[in-house]
Amino acid sequence: MSVDIRAATRTELDQMMNWAAAEGWNPGLNDADAFWAADPGGFLLAEDAGGMAACISATRYGTGFGFIGFYIARPERRGQGVGLALWRRAMEHLSGRVVGLDGVVAQQANYRKSGFQLAWRNVRYTALSPRLVGDGGGAGQVVPAATLPFAALAALDASVFPTPRDAFLRAWIAAPGHRALAVMRDGAAVGFGVLRPCRDGAKIGPLTAMDAAAARSLFDALVVGIDGPISLDLPEPNAEAVALAEAARMQPVFETARMYAGPAPAVMRHRIFGVASFELG
Question: Residue ranges of the N-acetyltransferase domain (predicted)?
Answer without folding.
Answer: 3-135
